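quick one
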Amino acid sequence: MKVLAVASEAYPLVKTGGLADVVGALPRAMKPFGIDVVTLLPGYPAVIAALGEAKVLHRYSDLFGGAAQLVSGIARGLDIIALVAPHLFDRPGNIYLGPDGRDWDDNAQRYAALAFAAAGIAGGLVKSYIPDIVHAHDWQGALVPVYLKFGGDGPPSVLTVHNIAFQGIFPSVIFPALQLPIAAFAIDGLEYYGSVSYLKGGLQCADAITTVSPGYAQEICSPEFGMGLDGVLRARRGTVSGIVNGIDTDVWNPSADHDIVATYDAGSLERREKNKRAVEQRFGLDSGDGILHCVVSRLTGQKGMDILSGSLDWLAESGARLALLGSGDAVIEASIHAAAARHSGRIGVVTGYDEALSHLLQAGADTILVPSRFEPCGLTQLYGLRYGCVPIVARTGGLADTIIDANDAALGAGVATGFQFLPVEAAALEWALTRAAALYADRDAWRAMQRQGMKAELSWTRSAGAYAALYRRLIEREKT
Ligand code: ADP
Ligand code: GLC
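structure w/ adenosine-5'-diphosphate:
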Protein backbone atom coordinates (compact mmCIF):
# COMPACT_ATOMS: atom_id res chain seq x y z
CA MET A 1 0.00 0.00 0.00
CA LYS A 2 1.25 3.48 -0.87
CA VAL A 3 0.63 6.34 1.54
CA LEU A 4 1.43 9.96 0.80
CA ALA A 5 2.03 11.81 4.09
CA VAL A 6 1.74 15.60 3.94
CA ALA A 7 3.27 17.70 6.67
CA SER A 8 5.13 20.92 7.36
CA GLU A 9 7.98 19.33 9.32
CA ALA A 10 9.74 15.97 9.74
CA TYR A 11 12.61 14.99 12.02
CA PRO A 12 15.58 14.95 11.35
CA LEU A 13 15.16 17.38 8.46
CA VAL A 14 13.21 20.16 10.06
CA LYS A 15 11.66 20.26 13.52
CA THR A 16 9.91 22.77 15.75
CA GLY A 17 8.05 20.26 17.94
CA GLY A 18 6.56 16.82 18.38
CA LEU A 19 4.84 16.88 14.98
CA ALA A 20 8.25 16.46 13.35
CA ASP A 21 9.13 13.51 15.57
CA VAL A 22 5.91 11.74 14.61
CA VAL A 23 6.06 12.46 10.88
CA GLY A 24 9.73 11.45 10.83
CA ALA A 25 9.18 8.17 12.69
CA LEU A 26 5.98 6.88 11.08
CA PRO A 27 7.40 5.84 7.68
CA ARG A 28 9.82 3.33 9.21
CA ALA A 29 7.16 2.13 11.65
CA MET A 30 4.68 1.48 8.82
CA LYS A 31 7.09 -0.64 6.76
CA PRO A 32 6.47 -3.93 8.63
CA PHE A 33 2.76 -3.53 7.82
CA GLY A 34 3.49 -3.51 4.12
CA ILE A 35 2.96 0.24 3.87
CA ASP A 36 5.33 2.52 1.98
CA VAL A 37 5.11 6.10 3.10
CA VAL A 38 6.39 8.96 0.97
CA THR A 39 6.36 12.31 2.74
CA LEU A 40 5.57 15.52 0.90
CA LEU A 41 7.39 18.42 2.54
CA PRO A 42 7.86 22.07 1.65
CA GLY A 43 11.20 22.68 -0.05
CA TYR A 44 12.73 24.59 2.84
CA PRO A 45 16.51 25.14 2.52
CA ALA A 46 17.21 22.32 5.05
CA VAL A 47 15.08 19.86 3.09
CA ILE A 48 16.66 20.69 -0.25
CA ALA A 49 20.16 20.54 1.24
CA ALA A 50 19.47 17.06 2.63
CA LEU A 51 18.04 15.68 -0.62
CA GLY A 52 20.59 13.70 -2.51
CA GLU A 53 19.98 13.18 -6.16
CA ALA A 54 16.51 14.46 -6.72
CA LYS A 55 14.32 13.52 -9.64
CA VAL A 56 11.97 16.12 -11.07
CA LEU A 57 8.42 14.76 -11.05
CA HIS A 58 6.51 17.81 -12.20
CA ARG A 59 6.99 21.48 -13.06
CA TYR A 60 4.48 24.26 -12.40
CA SER A 61 4.87 27.48 -14.33
CA ASP A 62 2.88 29.28 -11.64
CA LEU A 63 2.00 27.83 -8.26
CA PHE A 64 0.60 30.45 -5.92
CA GLY A 65 2.70 33.23 -7.42
CA GLY A 66 5.85 31.63 -8.78
CA ALA A 67 7.40 28.73 -10.65
CA ALA A 68 7.69 25.49 -8.71
CA GLN A 69 8.71 21.85 -9.00
CA LEU A 70 7.95 18.57 -7.34
CA VAL A 71 11.14 16.58 -6.83
CA SER A 72 11.64 13.20 -5.21
CA GLY A 73 14.59 11.62 -3.43
CA ILE A 74 15.88 10.24 -0.17
CA ALA A 75 16.77 12.70 2.57
CA ARG A 76 18.33 11.41 5.82
CA GLY A 77 16.59 8.08 5.35
CA LEU A 78 13.18 9.51 4.51
CA ASP A 79 11.47 9.00 1.17
CA ILE A 80 10.61 12.55 0.25
CA ILE A 81 8.74 14.52 -2.34
CA ALA A 82 9.72 18.16 -1.88
CA LEU A 83 7.71 21.06 -3.19
CA VAL A 84 10.45 23.31 -4.47
CA ALA A 85 8.91 26.76 -4.60
CA PRO A 86 11.56 29.37 -3.76
CA HIS A 87 9.01 32.20 -3.57
CA LEU A 88 7.27 30.34 -0.73
CA PHE A 89 9.87 28.30 1.10
CA ASP A 90 13.40 29.52 0.39
CA ARG A 91 13.75 31.54 3.59
CA PRO A 92 16.20 31.36 6.47
CA GLY A 93 15.29 30.83 10.10
CA ASN A 94 12.10 29.46 11.62
CA ILE A 95 9.83 27.77 9.09
CA TYR A 96 6.66 29.52 10.25
CA LEU A 97 7.95 32.87 11.51
CA GLY A 98 9.74 35.83 10.00
CA PRO A 99 12.70 37.55 11.66
CA ASP A 100 10.26 39.71 13.65
CA GLY A 101 8.92 36.57 15.38
CA ARG A 102 5.52 36.86 13.70
CA ASP A 103 3.92 34.41 11.27
CA TRP A 104 5.05 34.93 7.67
CA ASP A 105 2.25 36.97 6.16
CA ASP A 106 1.84 34.52 3.30
CA ASN A 107 1.50 31.37 5.43
CA ALA A 108 -1.99 30.91 3.95
CA GLN A 109 -0.51 30.68 0.45
CA ARG A 110 2.52 28.63 1.53
CA TYR A 111 0.50 25.78 3.00
CA ALA A 112 -2.32 26.02 0.49
CA ALA A 113 0.33 25.40 -2.16
CA LEU A 114 1.58 22.35 -0.24
CA ALA A 115 -1.94 20.92 0.01
CA PHE A 116 -2.73 21.79 -3.61
CA ALA A 117 0.37 19.89 -4.72
CA ALA A 118 -0.56 16.92 -2.53
CA ALA A 119 -4.06 16.76 -3.95
CA GLY A 120 -2.56 16.97 -7.43
CA ILE A 121 -0.30 13.98 -6.75
CA ALA A 122 -3.23 12.09 -5.23
CA GLY A 123 -5.27 12.88 -8.32
CA GLY A 124 -2.70 11.38 -10.69
CA LEU A 125 -0.48 14.34 -11.63
CA VAL A 126 2.64 12.20 -11.37
CA LYS A 127 2.09 9.06 -13.42
CA SER A 128 4.85 7.10 -11.67
CA TYR A 129 3.41 7.65 -8.19
CA ILE A 130 -0.25 7.36 -7.29
CA PRO A 131 -0.91 6.85 -3.58
CA ASP A 132 -3.69 4.66 -2.16
CA ILE A 133 -4.18 6.95 0.86
CA VAL A 134 -3.29 10.55 1.61
CA HIS A 135 -2.50 11.28 5.24
CA ALA A 136 -2.34 14.98 6.11
CA HIS A 137 -1.12 16.45 9.39
CA ASP A 138 -2.36 19.54 11.24
CA TRP A 139 -3.67 22.76 9.71
CA GLN A 140 -0.73 23.00 7.31
CA GLY A 141 -1.95 19.82 5.61
CA ALA A 142 -5.64 20.29 6.29
CA LEU A 143 -6.58 21.66 2.88
CA VAL A 144 -5.63 18.33 1.27
CA PRO A 145 -9.01 16.69 2.02
CA VAL A 146 -10.73 19.93 0.94
CA TYR A 147 -9.00 19.95 -2.45
CA LEU A 148 -9.75 16.24 -2.84
CA LYS A 149 -13.42 16.61 -1.98
CA PHE A 150 -14.05 19.63 -4.18
CA GLY A 151 -11.64 18.66 -6.92
CA GLY A 152 -13.14 15.36 -7.96
CA ASP A 153 -11.49 12.00 -7.77
CA GLY A 154 -8.82 10.93 -5.33
CA PRO A 155 -7.95 8.32 -2.76
CA PRO A 156 -9.32 8.35 0.80
CA SER A 157 -7.86 10.96 3.12
CA VAL A 158 -6.86 10.92 6.78
CA LEU A 159 -6.33 14.10 8.76
CA THR A 160 -4.40 13.90 12.02
CA VAL A 161 -4.85 16.71 14.51
CA HIS A 162 -1.70 17.14 16.60
CA ASN A 163 -2.94 20.28 18.28
CA ILE A 164 -6.37 21.83 17.81
CA ALA A 165 -5.09 25.15 19.16
CA PHE A 166 -3.51 25.82 15.77
CA GLN A 167 -6.23 26.08 13.12
CA GLY A 168 -4.91 28.12 10.21
CA ILE A 169 -7.57 30.84 10.26
CA PHE A 170 -7.23 33.56 7.62
CA PRO A 171 -9.38 36.45 6.37
CA SER A 172 -11.88 35.50 3.68
CA VAL A 173 -10.08 37.69 1.11
CA ILE A 174 -7.60 34.88 0.61
CA PHE A 175 -10.33 32.49 -0.55
CA PRO A 176 -10.15 33.25 -4.31
CA ALA A 177 -6.40 32.51 -4.29
CA LEU A 178 -7.11 28.97 -3.08
CA GLN A 179 -8.60 28.01 -6.46
CA LEU A 180 -11.50 26.20 -4.83
CA PRO A 181 -15.11 26.35 -6.06
CA ILE A 182 -17.27 28.85 -4.20
CA ALA A 183 -19.19 25.91 -2.68
CA ALA A 184 -16.15 25.25 -0.49
CA PHE A 185 -16.71 28.55 1.31
CA ALA A 186 -19.65 27.20 3.24
CA ILE A 187 -20.56 25.76 6.58
CA ASP A 188 -19.76 22.24 5.43
CA GLY A 189 -16.46 23.48 3.99
CA LEU A 190 -13.85 25.86 5.31
CA GLU A 191 -16.00 28.87 6.15
CA TYR A 192 -15.63 29.70 9.85
CA TYR A 193 -17.53 32.70 11.24
CA GLY A 194 -16.89 34.59 7.99
CA SER A 195 -13.21 33.65 7.86
CA VAL A 196 -11.38 30.77 6.24
CA SER A 197 -10.28 27.96 8.59
CA TYR A 198 -8.02 25.36 7.04
CA LEU A 199 -8.43 22.96 9.95
CA LYS A 200 -12.19 23.24 9.96
CA GLY A 201 -12.26 22.55 6.23
CA GLY A 202 -10.07 19.51 6.70
CA LEU A 203 -12.24 18.18 9.53
CA GLN A 204 -15.33 18.55 7.36
CA CYS A 205 -13.85 16.84 4.34
CA ALA A 206 -11.46 14.14 5.58
CA ASP A 207 -12.61 10.54 5.34
CA ALA A 208 -11.11 9.85 8.76
CA ILE A 209 -9.96 12.15 11.53
CA THR A 210 -7.40 11.02 14.05
CA THR A 211 -5.70 12.69 16.93
CA VAL A 212 -2.68 11.63 18.89
CA SER A 213 -4.25 10.03 21.97
CA PRO A 214 -7.62 8.52 22.83
CA GLY A 215 -7.99 10.93 25.74
CA TYR A 216 -7.50 14.00 23.55
CA ALA A 217 -9.91 12.56 20.95
CA GLN A 218 -12.61 12.59 23.59
CA GLU A 219 -11.58 15.98 24.99
CA ILE A 220 -11.69 17.87 21.70
CA CYS A 221 -15.30 16.81 21.19
CA SER A 222 -16.14 18.98 24.23
CA PRO A 223 -16.42 22.78 24.35
CA GLU A 224 -13.74 22.96 27.03
CA PHE A 225 -11.02 21.56 24.75
CA GLY A 226 -12.45 21.83 21.22
CA MET A 227 -11.36 25.44 20.74
CA GLY A 228 -14.48 26.22 18.73
CA LEU A 229 -14.34 23.05 16.61
CA ASP A 230 -16.02 20.66 19.06
CA GLY A 231 -19.35 21.01 17.24
CA VAL A 232 -17.78 19.97 13.93
CA LEU A 233 -16.07 17.05 15.64
CA ARG A 234 -19.23 15.91 17.39
CA ALA A 235 -21.07 15.99 14.07
CA ARG A 236 -18.36 13.74 12.64
CA ARG A 237 -17.86 11.65 15.77
CA GLY A 238 -18.08 8.35 13.88
CA THR A 239 -14.95 9.23 11.93
CA VAL A 240 -12.86 10.46 14.91
CA SER A 241 -10.38 8.24 16.72
CA GLY A 242 -7.33 8.60 18.93
CA ILE A 243 -4.07 6.77 18.21
CA VAL A 244 -1.39 7.43 20.78
CA ASN A 245 2.06 8.43 19.52
CA GLY A 246 4.99 6.09 19.83
CA ILE A 247 8.61 7.16 20.05
CA ASP A 248 11.66 6.31 18.00
CA THR A 249 13.35 3.88 20.37
CA ASP A 250 16.61 4.05 18.39
CA VAL A 251 16.92 7.82 18.60
CA TRP A 252 15.83 7.64 22.25
CA ASN A 253 17.82 4.79 23.71
CA PRO A 254 19.73 5.37 26.97
CA SER A 255 21.95 2.37 26.37
CA ALA A 256 23.26 3.75 23.07
CA ASP A 257 22.87 7.52 23.20
CA HIS A 258 25.79 9.59 21.93
CA ASP A 259 24.45 12.77 23.48
CA ILE A 260 24.79 11.59 27.08
CA VAL A 261 27.83 11.20 29.31
CA ALA A 262 27.16 7.67 30.59
CA THR A 263 24.92 5.17 28.86
CA TYR A 264 22.85 2.85 31.04
CA ASP A 265 19.87 0.54 31.16
CA ALA A 266 17.35 -0.57 33.76
CA GLY A 267 19.98 -2.78 35.37
CA SER A 268 22.59 -0.02 35.75
CA LEU A 269 20.60 2.98 36.90
CA GLU A 270 23.42 4.07 39.22
CA ARG A 271 25.25 5.17 36.04
CA ARG A 272 22.71 7.99 35.70
CA GLU A 273 24.70 9.79 38.45
CA LYS A 274 27.34 10.77 35.90
CA ASN A 275 24.70 12.36 33.72
CA LYS A 276 23.25 14.13 36.74
CA ARG A 277 26.66 15.68 37.48
CA ALA A 278 26.90 16.81 33.85
CA VAL A 279 23.44 18.39 34.02
CA GLU A 280 24.39 20.21 37.23
CA GLN A 281 27.47 21.61 35.50
CA ARG A 282 25.70 22.67 32.33
CA PHE A 283 22.94 24.42 34.29
CA GLY A 284 25.16 25.94 37.01
CA LEU A 285 23.44 23.98 39.76
CA ASP A 286 24.77 22.96 43.18
CA SER A 287 25.97 19.39 43.09
CA GLY A 288 24.15 16.91 45.26
CA ASP A 289 22.10 13.84 45.76
CA GLY A 290 18.76 15.60 46.27
CA ILE A 291 15.92 15.47 43.76
CA LEU A 292 16.63 17.22 40.46
CA HIS A 293 13.67 18.06 38.23
CA CYS A 294 13.93 19.03 34.59
CA VAL A 295 11.81 20.67 31.93
CA VAL A 296 12.24 20.41 28.14
CA SER A 297 9.52 22.48 26.60
CA ARG A 298 8.16 25.32 24.62
CA LEU A 299 7.63 28.03 27.23
CA THR A 300 3.97 28.72 26.63
CA GLY A 301 0.64 28.81 28.41
CA GLN A 302 -0.36 25.49 26.79
CA LYS A 303 2.58 23.87 28.52
CA GLY A 304 1.62 25.43 31.89
CA MET A 305 4.98 27.17 32.08
CA ASP A 306 3.43 30.27 33.67
CA ILE A 307 2.13 28.06 36.46
CA LEU A 308 5.48 26.41 36.95
CA SER A 309 7.14 29.79 36.97
CA GLY A 310 4.82 30.84 39.82
CA SER A 311 5.94 27.79 41.84
CA LEU A 312 9.68 28.24 41.38
CA ASP A 313 10.28 30.05 44.70
CA TRP A 314 8.39 27.26 46.45
CA LEU A 315 10.34 24.60 44.55
CA ALA A 316 13.74 26.08 45.41
CA GLU A 317 12.78 26.66 49.05
CA SER A 318 11.56 23.07 49.33
CA GLY A 319 15.15 21.98 48.71
CA ALA A 320 14.62 20.66 45.18
CA ARG A 321 16.52 21.76 42.08
CA LEU A 322 15.36 22.39 38.53
CA ALA A 323 17.16 22.41 35.17
CA LEU A 324 15.02 23.98 32.48
CA LEU A 325 15.62 23.98 28.73
CA GLY A 326 13.23 25.90 26.53
CA SER A 327 12.20 29.06 24.82
CA GLY A 328 9.00 30.77 23.86
CA ASP A 329 6.76 33.39 25.42
CA ALA A 330 8.87 36.44 26.40
CA VAL A 331 6.96 37.15 29.63
CA ILE A 332 7.28 33.54 30.83
CA GLU A 333 10.95 33.45 29.86
CA ALA A 334 11.63 36.63 31.82
CA SER A 335 9.89 35.38 34.95
CA ILE A 336 11.76 32.06 34.84
CA HIS A 337 15.06 33.89 34.43
CA ALA A 338 14.22 36.14 37.37
CA ALA A 339 13.50 33.07 39.53
CA ALA A 340 16.79 31.50 38.44
CA ALA A 341 18.60 34.69 39.47
CA ARG A 342 16.90 34.61 42.89
CA HIS A 343 17.82 30.96 43.40
CA SER A 344 21.19 30.52 41.85
CA GLY A 345 22.45 26.98 42.29
CA ARG A 346 18.92 25.64 42.62
CA ILE A 347 17.28 26.75 39.39
CA GLY A 348 19.25 26.71 36.16
CA VAL A 349 17.97 27.76 32.75
CA VAL A 350 19.25 27.27 29.23
CA THR A 351 17.26 29.32 26.76
CA GLY A 352 16.92 27.95 23.27
CA TYR A 353 16.49 24.73 21.40
CA ASP A 354 19.13 22.03 21.91
CA GLU A 355 18.34 18.48 20.88
CA ALA A 356 21.51 16.98 22.43
CA LEU A 357 20.99 18.75 25.74
CA SER A 358 17.41 17.47 25.85
CA HIS A 359 18.81 13.92 25.79
CA LEU A 360 21.25 14.69 28.61
CA LEU A 361 18.45 16.11 30.76
CA GLN A 362 16.33 12.99 30.32
CA ALA A 363 19.37 10.88 31.24
CA GLY A 364 20.45 12.90 34.27
CA ALA A 365 17.43 14.48 35.94
CA ASP A 366 15.27 12.51 38.37
CA THR A 367 11.96 13.79 37.02
CA ILE A 368 10.57 15.66 34.04
CA LEU A 369 7.77 18.15 34.66
CA VAL A 370 4.96 18.46 32.11
CA PRO A 371 2.28 20.69 33.68
CA SER A 372 0.31 21.26 30.44
CA ARG A 373 -3.17 22.80 30.46
CA PHE A 374 -3.89 20.56 27.49
CA GLU A 375 -1.65 18.05 25.76
CA PRO A 376 -2.73 16.14 22.64
CA CYS A 377 -0.11 13.47 23.29
CA GLY A 378 3.17 14.85 24.55
CA LEU A 379 6.46 13.15 23.81
CA THR A 380 8.79 14.36 26.54
CA GLN A 381 6.99 12.28 29.18
CA LEU A 382 7.47 9.22 26.92
CA TYR A 383 11.19 9.97 26.55
CA GLY A 384 11.20 10.38 30.35
CA LEU A 385 9.74 6.89 30.83
CA ARG A 386 12.34 5.39 28.51
CA TYR A 387 15.19 7.17 30.35
CA GLY A 388 14.08 6.50 33.93
CA CYS A 389 13.35 10.21 34.31
CA VAL A 390 10.06 9.98 36.19
CA PRO A 391 7.30 12.08 34.62
CA ILE A 392 5.25 14.48 36.75
CA VAL A 393 2.34 15.44 34.51
CA ALA A 394 -0.99 17.19 34.40
CA ARG A 395 -3.87 14.71 34.16
CA THR A 396 -4.94 15.69 30.65
CA GLY A 397 -4.98 14.33 27.09
CA GLY A 398 -2.08 12.07 26.19
CA LEU A 399 -0.36 12.70 29.50
CA ALA A 400 -3.25 11.05 31.34
CA ASP A 401 -3.23 8.19 28.82
CA THR A 402 0.47 7.37 29.09
CA ILE A 403 1.48 7.86 32.74
CA ILE A 404 0.21 5.73 35.62
CA ASP A 405 -0.09 7.82 38.77
CA ALA A 406 1.74 6.63 41.87
CA ASN A 407 -1.36 6.38 44.00
CA ASP A 408 -1.48 3.76 46.74
CA ALA A 409 -3.25 1.20 44.57
CA ALA A 410 -0.79 1.56 41.68
CA LEU A 411 2.23 1.53 43.98
CA GLY A 412 0.86 -1.54 45.74
CA ALA A 413 0.39 -3.31 42.41
CA GLY A 414 3.83 -2.17 41.23
CA VAL A 415 2.47 -0.49 38.10
CA ALA A 416 3.03 3.21 38.86
CA THR A 417 5.24 5.11 36.41
CA GLY A 418 4.90 8.75 37.48
CA PHE A 419 2.77 11.40 39.12
CA GLN A 420 -0.39 13.08 37.84
CA PHE A 421 -2.05 16.20 39.14
CA LEU A 422 -5.16 18.25 38.46
CA PRO A 423 -6.26 21.03 38.34
CA VAL A 424 -3.39 22.69 36.54
CA GLU A 425 -2.71 25.13 39.34
CA ALA A 426 0.24 25.89 41.58
CA ALA A 427 -1.14 24.11 44.64
CA ALA A 428 -1.78 20.86 42.77
CA LEU A 429 1.62 20.99 41.04
CA GLU A 430 3.34 21.61 44.37
CA TRP A 431 1.45 18.70 45.93
CA ALA A 432 2.69 16.42 43.14
CA LEU A 433 6.26 17.66 43.68
CA THR A 434 5.87 16.94 47.41
CA ARG A 435 4.66 13.39 46.68
CA ALA A 436 7.59 12.88 44.31
CA ALA A 437 10.13 14.12 46.86
CA ALA A 438 8.66 11.77 49.47
CA LEU A 439 8.95 8.75 47.19
CA TYR A 440 12.42 9.81 46.05
CA ALA A 441 13.54 9.56 49.67
CA ASP A 442 12.79 5.83 49.50
CA ARG A 443 15.45 4.88 46.94
CA ASP A 444 14.26 1.32 46.44
CA ALA A 445 10.71 2.43 45.73
CA TRP A 446 12.02 5.12 43.40
CA ARG A 447 14.23 2.72 41.48
CA ALA A 448 11.30 0.31 41.16
CA MET A 449 9.19 3.06 39.63
CA GLN A 450 11.97 4.07 37.24
CA ARG A 451 12.28 0.46 36.10
CA GLN A 452 8.53 0.15 35.69
CA GLY A 453 8.55 3.19 33.37
CA MET A 454 11.49 1.83 31.41
CA LYS A 455 9.50 -1.36 30.77
CA ALA A 456 6.59 0.53 29.21
CA GLU A 457 5.85 -0.34 25.59
CA LEU A 458 6.58 2.95 23.84
CA SER A 459 7.59 1.85 20.36
CA TRP A 460 5.48 2.65 17.33
CA THR A 461 4.50 -0.97 16.69
CA ARG A 462 1.03 -0.88 18.21
CA SER A 463 0.06 2.55 16.93
CA ALA A 464 1.48 1.90 13.47
CA GLY A 465 -0.77 -1.17 13.40
CA ALA A 466 -3.73 1.03 14.27
CA TYR A 467 -2.93 3.41 11.38
CA ALA A 468 -2.51 0.43 9.05
CA ALA A 469 -5.90 -0.95 10.07
CA LEU A 470 -7.50 2.45 9.55
CA TYR A 471 -5.98 2.80 6.05
CA ARG A 472 -7.23 -0.68 5.14
CA ARG A 473 -10.75 0.06 6.39
CA LEU A 474 -10.89 3.23 4.29
CA ILE A 475 -9.71 1.43 1.17
CA GLU A 476 -12.22 -1.40 1.71
CA ARG A 477 -15.02 1.11 2.25
CA GLU A 478 -14.15 2.90 -0.96
CA LYS A 479 -14.41 -0.34 -2.91
CA THR A 480 -17.95 -1.02 -1.71
P1 ADP B 1 4.95 20.01 21.36
O1 ADP B 1 5.08 19.42 20.02
O2 ADP B 1 3.57 20.43 21.71
O3 ADP B 1 5.94 21.08 21.63
P2 ADP B 1 5.79 17.36 22.33
O4 ADP B 1 6.07 16.91 23.71
O5 ADP B 1 4.94 16.54 21.49
O6 ADP B 1 5.27 18.86 22.45
O7 ADP B 1 7.15 17.47 21.52
C1 ADP B 1 8.16 18.36 21.82
C2 ADP B 1 9.43 17.89 21.14
O8 ADP B 1 10.32 18.98 21.05
C3 ADP B 1 10.14 16.81 21.91
O9 ADP B 1 10.90 16.04 21.01
C4 ADP B 1 11.05 17.63 22.83
O10 ADP B 1 12.15 16.90 23.29
C5 ADP B 1 11.44 18.74 21.89
N1 ADP B 1 11.80 20.00 22.54
C6 ADP B 1 10.95 20.93 23.05
N2 ADP B 1 11.64 22.01 23.49
C7 ADP B 1 12.93 21.73 23.26
C8 ADP B 1 14.15 22.46 23.48
N3 ADP B 1 14.15 23.67 24.01
N4 ADP B 1 15.30 21.89 23.09
C9 ADP B 1 15.31 20.65 22.54
N5 ADP B 1 14.20 19.92 22.30
C10 ADP B 1 13.04 20.46 22.65
C1 GLC C 1 1.62 18.55 19.04
C2 GLC C 1 1.10 18.40 20.47
C3 GLC C 1 1.82 17.33 21.26
C4 GLC C 1 2.02 16.08 20.42
C5 GLC C 1 2.71 16.43 19.12
C6 GLC C 1 2.95 15.22 18.23
O1 GLC C 1 2.72 19.37 18.99
O2 GLC C 1 1.14 19.64 21.17
O3 GLC C 1 1.08 17.00 22.42
O4 GLC C 1 2.80 15.15 21.14
O5 GLC C 1 1.92 17.33 18.40
O6 GLC C 1 1.76 14.54 17.94
